[in-house]
Specification:
It is a single chain. The protein is globular. The protein is of the alpha/beta class. It starts with a strand and ends with a strand. Helix 1 packs across helix 2. Strands 7, 8, 9, 10, 11, 12, 13 and 14 form an eight-stranded mixed sheet that branches. Strands 1, 4, 5 and 6 form a four-stranded mixed sheet that branches. The chain has a two-stranded antiparallel sheet with strand order 2-3. It has two domains: 72 residues, no CATH class; 153 residues, no CATH class. Helix content is 21%, strand content 32%.
């Protein structure tokens, strides 16, 4: 019932792959690295997922219905966080209903901009065309300057539009996918938003990276695993704010869209 992809097989070696398939090194039961619910390698199709850092690698397991067998490249820091998540040390409590199904805010210095700024990130779900989509809303704490300039202007949205994000005029329509970008979910937690590498053939780089992996709710994680797509919205500082409920977050997004200060892109999941 175990699937070992060619990429995973190439990383762990043919002998280890055969031992896994024979059941010698595969656990009978596991917590799915995607949905975090129990699984059984002897009773249901299971994917092998190999998290690879600069110096170490960790093999995990997932329901085949959640994600395919794959290799997930991580920074060594991200990998250590994933290891703690597997052992349960880094799992953060999720908000209980009727709290907002959103991850705690995270922040990091955005890559495309030269001026240091902090990006606030909130996770929630957006209802579009009778479908619940997992969404990430990104809002800096201050204006973002274009690289090489020190002016007081805010180029956050123009810079993202140049990267392929599109202005949002109506939240009721899902945004188009932007090539080369992805959302990194590892061990059921949000680690980063990845942007295309500077040179062809290189690994994607983190545009935003959580200081500590962000917990997401079961509903958000389930929607992401089902559609393998996340909607990422971005707005200038002061446009959205930290909303306590998803209905208020939706209202803030619609207000930003009506004001012409909202851009968005759909991104595939990288990892789990």
């Amino acid at each position: 019932m175990l699937d070992v992809s060619d990429d995973v097989r190439a990383e762990i070696g043919e002998a280890e792959a055969e031992r896994l398939l024979a059941g010698e090194n595969a656990p009978g039961s596991y917590d799915c690295t995607s949905c975090r619910t129990p699984g059984d390698t002897t009773a249901e199709p299971t994917s092998t997922v190999l998290f690879v850092g600069e110096e170490t690698a960790v093999l995990a397991f997932a329901h085949a219905r959640c994600i395919p067998s794959q290799v997930v490249p991580l920074s060594e820091e991200q990998l250590q966080g994933a290891v703690r998540a597997i052992s349960g040390e880094a799992r953060q409590p999720e908000p209980a209903a009727p709290a907002v199904p959103a991850a705690p805010s995270g922040s990091a210095a955005p890559r495309p901009e030269q001026r240091q700024a902090v990006l606030g990130v909130t996770c929630g779900q957006v209802f579009i065309d009778d479908t619940l989509y997992p969404a990430i809303v990104v809002e800096p704490t201050g204006p973002i300057a274009r690289p090489g300039t020190d002016g007081p202007g805010d180029d956050f949205l123009p810079l993202l539009i140049e990267q392929g994000f599109l202005p949002v005029t109506e939240v009721a329509q899902p945004p188009a996918q932007v090539p080369g970008w992805s959302v990194l979910l590892a061990m059921g937690q949000l680690h980063a938003i990845l942007m295309p590498p500077a040179s062809p053939g290189a690994q994607p780089v983190a545009w935003w990276q959580a200081h500590q992996a962000l917990a997401v709710t079961d509903g958000w994680r389930t929607a992401a695993a089902k559609g393998h797509k996340v909607l990422v919205y971005a707005a200038p500082a002061g446009s959205i704010g930290q909303q306590p409920r998803e209905d208020l977050l939706r209202e803030a997004l619609e207000k930003a869209a009506a004001g012409g200060v909202l851009v968005a892109a759909a991104m595939p999941l990288a990892g789990t």
